[in-house]
Amino acid sequence: MSVKKFDRDVLRRLLRYTRPYTAFLVLAMLSALISVLLTLLIPVLIGDAVDCILEAGQVDFTALARTLVFIGAAVAGSAVFQWLLAYFTNLITYRTVKDLRVQLFHKLHTVPLKYIDQTAHGDFISRVVNDIDQVSDGLLQGFTQLFTGVVTILGTLVFMLAANVWVALLVFVLTPLSLFVASFIAKNTYRHFRGQTAIQGELSGYVEEMVANQKLVRSFGYEARAAAHFEEINTRLYAEGQKAQFFSSLSNPCTRFVNAIVYAAVGVAGAIAAISGVMSVGQISMFLSYANQYTKPFNEITGIITQLQTAFASAQRVFAVMDEPAEEPDPENPAVLPHCAGEIGLSHVRFSYDPARPLIEDLNLAVKPGSRIDIVGPTGCGKTTLINLLMRFYEVDGGSIRVDGVDTRAMSRSGLRSLFGMVLQESWLYSGTVRDNIAYGRPDATMEEVTAAAKAAHADSFIRRLPDGYSTIIAEDGGNLSQGQKQLLCIARVMLAGPPMLILDEATSNIDTRTEILVQRAFEKMMEGRTSFIVAHRLSTIREADLILVMNQGRIIEQGRHEELLEKRGFYYHLYNSQFAHDRQEA
Fold first, then answer.
1. Residue 164 parent element (H or E)
2. Mean of all residue pLDDT scores within the chain
3. Fewer CB within a 10 Å sphere, N or C end of the chain?
4. How far is Cα 160 from Cα 283, in angstroms, rounded to an integer?
5. Which residue range(s) make up the domain with 392?
6. What is the tens place of the pLDDT at every residue in 186-229?
7. Same-domain status, 350 and 299
């Protein structure tokens, strides 16, 4: 797609977002038109006022006074309509940008998690905040200024042609010079502004990554390398930005040079016409004013084009997210389980993150209601992938997963996920009160229910020691809490929700041994009658499992109870003994 066609498509697509505000757009265009016409009328009136002053002692004061009143009215009217233009433009701009930003944020909740996982989160932030601001400043406001400039140019030509055809034609002949300058600058700025915007997104992503993992950066002494990589990205941004600013900075001196040529040409031609008696002094004054007014929009348009280049590049990044395929929609009439027993069946399941590298092939599993299933295996064997497939965070490439005999694809994602309670090794909290974080899955829960869940998770004691207890504000991602405290709150969150099935991914990894024993007892009580999937890294915790799945390279290679698997002396036997041998060596 050519740059020009792309620009048209972006503009056309953006203008669709202004459709709800068409009335404001019409009023803005009308205000711009009236303001420009009144502005163009002023030089005519000034010329008439000049012609009222013939020479000393020959001044038509009556006509002069009347003309001055008209000039004052035209100036006041132009100012009023310019204010209305700005008012309506701002209404359109901010409401359109609000809709665009809301839609982009909603889009982030509909794209597959695969896309989220593969894109830098800081780049998402840059698109939602910075790029849409650039669209606001460039495309929407610039479009109105562009319309005003074009109307001013055309109106000025009409007024000049009405006054004197030959001088007007002289101005018209010099017009291509202004167009050439604008075109030259626009072509050379677009590529660099587009590159600048892309590097800004890369820089935002890197900064977000480094800030979010600052403890890790410092613990491994990565500061110097992080600073060096930041400097490398920042240097590229500087170089690209410098080129973009260099070409955009040419607009003012170049257009001023063109303005001076047009002004001088009109002055010379007007003087010759006045000497020949073809034009009056007042008309020369009018033409000189028009010469300034005619070339001024070219200056503004050139500056606007610079803004437009940035805006088009930003809009491309915004619409790139919008155009990402959404995850497969829920069925029109999704299946609903009024009562979930917790029977899980996997039949010939296939899945891979990369089609060229198969991960899970022909996976079959039958889980009875209320069973405790522990999943073990080496790193990268597919334990977490299996959990992702159960929750439909990722879609299977083949086969099916059933809950109580119902294919999970026949259910809505929200309906399916409401059947599971998840506690992950990586805890997540948001900026809000302790109570709000515990009640994240049940916002309508009473304070008594929240407190009961916290007590069951053995989190109540430390919560009451916080400055404001359950009303204490948690910093972003729980920054003012320890890892163990954050994990206890996540456990309390699941206990409050009370789902029919559980998924625990090393849920007690950050908790001290004494508290872990208490929490494990609480889990055991909560798991009674509930189907539970436990991703276990410490094999000493899985002896009580009803079924142990031993995974390797995306396949279940062994399954059974702890004693049965040890008797087989297979993969699990060696895995179990190697871990305990390692523990004995450390002891």
1. none
2. 80
3. C
4. 10
5. 344-586
6. 667 767 777 787 788 788 878 877 877 776 777 677 888 888 88
7. no
